[in-house]
Automatic annotation (TrEMBL):
Protein name: Response regulator
Residue intervals of the Response regulatory domain: 5-121
Modified residues (4-aspartylphosphate): D56
Highest rank taxon of the organism: Bacteria
Amino acid sequence: MDVIRVVLVDDHEVVRRGVAALLDSEDDIEVVGEAGTAESAITRITALQPDVAVLDVRLPDGSGVDVCREVRSRRPELACLMLTSFADDDALFDSVMAGASGYVLKQIHGSDLVGAVRTVASGQSLLDPQTTASMLARLRDQESRKDPLAALSPQERQILDLIGEGLTNRQIGERMFLAEKTVKNYVSNLLGKLDMQRRTQAAALVTRLKAERGERGDLRPW
């Protein structure tokens, strides 16, 4: 039987000792190292090359999430199991984005923690389908909020900006040295890309985006 090598990272020595005693009592698990800070955790994990890192989310000089991201950038095969005292959606999301395989509360039963270590060590995830769906939805929302005008060309962005100022196609053409018919085509194209039917909708979008970004006179990417 292959032994699962584990490094524990928690700033509370009592917690580390308790978890270490629990895991070491299993025939197939061995705690090979411990750390109480983010800096020492990265050093220890890099040197010891465990199969699993059990990481406290909150550390005195950083976070377990940062440690997870750093060590997995060096060893993508490392499984990180986040251990925390608080149910925190933001911490969960950040952990998933950092590449963590699981996220459990310190109130977990000992047998469940042992099972969690075995699960992530085998390459499986502890994230349930509902959590995964929530993470994907949040990712999609962030991507759309990042730049809702991503499909527009620089020329179309500029025309949209002028629509927001209330200019007509003729006035936009004069401002940009374009024929009115050319402007009309641009407007039609950008409305299609934004899934809009009327220029008033586009003008309202410009107003909202500028309010969110702070008035700065254009619609450059976020």
